[in-house]
């Protein structure tokens, strides 16, 4: 949009074009062209709008994302409570998006802009799903008094018991609260890492800290939100994911997908990054930028993972990254060890609308003894080939992938035991927990099944103490290093747990 | 290596003579995305350009679909639109792309239609006056650009804007068919440039032809302003 810049008492001021003071003759220009966008000093006597404070404190938002009118928002600039920041910067000839940190040239484009009237208004294509940030788009931040939650009851009402390994990790976390540091909690799938967090979070909340749990997946936000609400009934809690309607603004405890962190700035004293090794977090460096930007200078960052990547493991082993391990599942039984089963040239078979014989037998076996099973496949295309074949065996069998519009409902049906076999791509490798289930992978040799993906997949089995010995079968057309390492990883964890 | 304009996945273009000699532009979409477009070819309605493969036989009479027959029956709208031609079936995939373009504001996606849109223009409409369907001022400001104008600019010939949108109404995509067809008052009026279309053949450009109500209203205003005939070209149908 266009702004005007003018002088008041010898000081530079700016205003959006429609709010430009009449008596100042100055020319409207794109926000990007302004040299000095600093707001006037804070006017302490000003009675600011608390809704705006709740919406904006610790964030960096588009004007369109605020509920107040432009007029009301700009009034806060005039009194030194907000700041307009450039959305797109140029750093040594390279564009940079100030919301998502993207500086990849191919992810910028421009258009002739009706708002600023520039022929080329450059915008970021990387974070466009959150509303377009272009050169003439100011990003608004709050510079008035910070939020406080002093009068809230932050007591945790969780009454469960921690295992000794959980207890140990929980204490380590508690010790670190209030310290500027990092901590890796390396917990096997099914270790009960969520419970490990409660005491630490409680301590942080009680000292008035703002806390964020960031996870790469929407499924996890949906699963965790009701649990946290039960554990911390007195705390303001907000769950954020793409398309979420929950805008509990100014909440003290925030559960968010990593993408939503792009909207936060210097907001959190404690950030817990769940599944730090997971796609797309490890994949997309702008997400690492998001975590970095969302934390306060003195923040504690906690990483959770069952399968930290090599770099993180190395840092932990060298003592550069404080870490604590939970090698045992909360129910005390060992992790199920995968079996490797050769299934021939399955792709060729699928082309002829057939499944490898042993995979077929497994499905039949599951159906006969009434046991649920996950069948992981390497791609959406394979999924689409295989689901119709399996539906002929049992019409209740379903397939689900990331872009599936009925994804939520299908997962719920599987969880309720209505779906005997759920065929899925790697989207369900993490987070989703169904008590009585076995796991099979078709085409385990494919590249997408990395060591960590396979450890996570194997971790879907044997989650309940009433059924700790779930089966894990890797059907393959040639063993890979990733498969062997995944098996070794699981056996090693069982050894460390003394099992 | 290229990156797909829509899904951003990296892909390799198949090596061909066109590719080696650089006679054509780089492929904008990856194989997966490219194959999700359904080009309109074979038999289609002679007026609105809808593919006949898509709907049951009973909704078609000779070269015309029943929707167009309904338009042509009434005195008010008969003959207003000479013909419409579109690139692709407006399937779920194209819906996603158009919504990314319009509602998220990813203007760059327009480039993905450059080659086929120019080709269709050359085949069917060359020499006609190019007119993008305008947006209301409010909507134009909200979006930052007019997608119809970006499409028109792809064609490389002069663009004129002889009409303007006076009524800021709810988004067409949020209306039912009945609401769309129930036209009380034309949402367009002639602008200062209207002089230029007198006695000329005009080509309206828009992103999607859905019911044909918007395009016919624009066409009608231009006919009243003296245009000889009005056709239209869109990406989706």
Automatic annotation (TrEMBL), chain A:
<feature type="domain" description="Helicase C-terminal">
    <location>
        <begin position="358"/>
        <end position="499"/>
    </location>
</feature>
<dbReference type="Pfam" id="PF04851">
    <property type="entry name" value="ResIII"/>
</dbReference>
<dbReference type="GO" id="GO:0006302">
    <property type="term" value="P:double-strand break repair"/>
</dbReference>
<feature type="domain" description="Helicase ATP-binding">
    <location>
        <begin position="174"/>
        <end position="326"/>
    </location>
</feature>
<dbReference type="Pfam" id="PF00271">
    <property type="entry name" value="Helicase_C"/>
</dbReference>
<keyword id="KW-0238">DNA-binding</keyword>
<dbReference type="InterPro" id="IPR027417">
    <property type="entry name" value="P-loop_NTPase"/>
</dbReference>
<dbReference type="GO" id="GO:0043138">
    <property type="term" value="F:3'-5' DNA helicase activity"/>
</dbReference>
<dbReference type="GO" id="GO:0016787">
    <property type="term" value="F:hydrolase activity"/>
</dbReference>
<dbReference type="GO" id="GO:0006270">
    <property type="term" value="P:DNA replication initiation"/>
</dbReference>
<dbReference type="GO" id="GO:0005524">
    <property type="term" value="F:ATP binding"/>
</dbReference>
<dbReference type="GO" id="GO:0003677">
    <property type="term" value="F:DNA binding"/>
</dbReference>
<keyword id="KW-0067">ATP-binding</keyword>
<keyword id="KW-0547">Nucleotide-binding</keyword>
<dbReference type="GO" id="GO:0006310">
    <property type="term" value="P:DNA recombination"/>
</dbReference>
<dbReference type="InterPro" id="IPR014001">
    <property type="entry name" value="Helicase_ATP-bd"/>
</dbReference>
<dbReference type="InterPro" id="IPR001650">
    <property type="entry name" value="Helicase_C-like"/>
</dbReference>
<dbReference type="InterPro" id="IPR006935">
    <property type="entry name" value="Helicase/UvrB_N"/>
</dbReference>
<protein>
    <submittedName>
        <fullName>Competence protein ComFA</fullName>
    </submittedName>
</protein>
UniProtKB/TrEMBL annotation, chain B:
<dbReference type="InterPro" id="IPR051910">
    <property type="entry name" value="ComF/GntX_DNA_util-trans"/>
</dbReference>
<protein>
    <submittedName>
        <fullName>Competence protein ComFC</fullName>
    </submittedName>
</protein>
<comment type="similarity">
    <text>Belongs to the ComF/GntX family.</text>
</comment>
<dbReference type="InterPro" id="IPR029057">
    <property type="entry name" value="PRTase-like"/>
</dbReference>
<dbReference type="InterPro" id="IPR000836">
    <property type="entry name" value="PRTase_dom"/>
</dbReference>
<feature type="domain" description="Phosphoribosyltransferase">
    <location>
        <begin position="152"/>
        <end position="235"/>
    </location>
</feature>
<dbReference type="Pfam" id="PF00156">
    <property type="entry name" value="Pribosyltran"/>
</dbReference>
């Amino acid at each position: 949009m266009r702004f005007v810049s003018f002088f008041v008492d010898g000081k530079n001021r700016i205003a959006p074009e429609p709010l430009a003071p009449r008596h100042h003759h100055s020319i409207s220009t794109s926000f990007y062209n302004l040299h000095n966008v600093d707001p006037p000093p804070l006017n302490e006597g000003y009675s600011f709008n608390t809704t705006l404070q709740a919406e904006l404190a610790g964030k960096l938002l588009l004007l369109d994302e605020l509920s107040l009118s432009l007029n009301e928002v700009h009034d806060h600039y005039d009194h030194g409570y907000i700041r307009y920041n450039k959305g797109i910067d140029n750093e040594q000839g390279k564009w940079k998006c100030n919301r998502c940190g993207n500086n990849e040239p191919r992810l910028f484009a421009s258009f002739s802009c009706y708002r600023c009237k520039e022929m080329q208004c450059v915008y970021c294509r990387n974070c466009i799903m959150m509303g377009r940030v272009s050169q003439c788009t100011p990003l608004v931040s709050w510079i008035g008094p910070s939020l406080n939650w002093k009068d809230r009851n932050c007591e945790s009402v969780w009454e469960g018991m921690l295992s000794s390994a959980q207890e140990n990790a929980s204490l380590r976390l508690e010790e670190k609260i209030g310290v500027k540091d990092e901590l890796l909690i390396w917990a096997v799938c099914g270790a009960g890492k969520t419970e490990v967090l409660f005491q630490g979070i409680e301590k942080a909340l009680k000292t008035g800290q703002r806390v964020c749990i960031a996870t790469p997946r929407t499924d996890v936000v949906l699963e965790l939100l009701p649990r946290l609400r039960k554990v911390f009934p007195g705390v303001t809690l907000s769950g954020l994911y793409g398309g979420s309607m929950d805008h509990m603004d100014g909440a003290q405890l925030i559960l968010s997908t990593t993408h939503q962190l792009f909207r936060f700035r210097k907001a959190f004293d404690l950030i817990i990054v769940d599944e730090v090794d997971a796609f797309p977090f490890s994949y997309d460096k702008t997400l690492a930028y998001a975590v970095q930007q969302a934390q306060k200078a003195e923040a504690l960052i906690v990483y959770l993972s069952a399968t930290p990547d090599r770099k993180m493991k190395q840092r932990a082993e060298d003592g550069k990254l404080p870490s604590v391990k939970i090698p045992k599942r909360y129910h005390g039984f060992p992790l199920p060890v995968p079996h490797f089963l050769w299934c021939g040239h399955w792709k060729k078979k699928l082309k002829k609308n057939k499944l490898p014989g042993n995979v077929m037998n497994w499905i039949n076996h599951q159906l006969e003894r009434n046991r649920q099973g996950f069948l992981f496949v390497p791609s959406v295309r394979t999924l689409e080939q295989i689901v119709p074949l399996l539906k002929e065996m049992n019409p209740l069998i379903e397939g689900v992938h990331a872009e599936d519009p009925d994804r939520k409902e299908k997962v719920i049906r599987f969880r309720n035991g209505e779906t005997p076999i759920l065929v899925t791509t790697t989207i369900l490798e993490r987070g989703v927990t169904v008590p009585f289930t076995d796991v099979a992978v078709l085409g385990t040799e494919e590249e997408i099944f990395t060591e960590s993906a396979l450890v996570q997949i194997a971790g879907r089995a044997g989650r309940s103490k009433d059924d700790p010995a779930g089966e894990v079968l890797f059907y393959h057309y040639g063993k890979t290093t990733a498969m062997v390492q995944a098996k070794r990883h699981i056996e090693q964890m069982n050894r460390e747990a003394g099992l | 290596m290229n990156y797909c304009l829509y899904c951003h996945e990296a892909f390799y273009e198949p090596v061909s003579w066109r590719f080696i000699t650089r006679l054509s532009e780089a492929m904008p979409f990856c194989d997966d995305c490219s194959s999700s477009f359904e080009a309109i070819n074979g038999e289609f309605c002679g007026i609105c350009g809808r593919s006949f493969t898509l709907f049951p036989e009973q909704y078609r009479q000779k070269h015309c679909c029943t929707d167009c027959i309904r338009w042509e029956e009434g005195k008010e709208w008969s003959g207003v639109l000479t013909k419409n031609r579109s690139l692709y079936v407006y399937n779920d995939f194209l819906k996603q792309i158009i919504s990314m373009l319009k509602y998220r504001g990813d203007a760059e996606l327009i480039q993905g239609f450059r080659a086929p849109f120019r080709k269709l223009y050359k085949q069917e409409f060359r020499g006609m006056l190019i007119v993008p369907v305008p947006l209301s001022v409010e909507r134009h400001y909200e979006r930052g650009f007019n997608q119809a104008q970006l499409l028109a600019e792809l064609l490389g010939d002069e663009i004129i804007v002889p009409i303007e949108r006076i009524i800021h109404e709810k988004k067409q995509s949020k209306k039912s068919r009945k609401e769309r067809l129930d036209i009380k008052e034309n949402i367009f009026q002639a602008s200062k440039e209207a002089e230029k279309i007198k006695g000329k053949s005009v080509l309206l450009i828009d992103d999607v032809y859905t019911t044909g109500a918007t395009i016919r209203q624009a066409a009608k205003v231009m006919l009243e302003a003296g245009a000889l005939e009005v056709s239209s070209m869109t990406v989706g149908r």
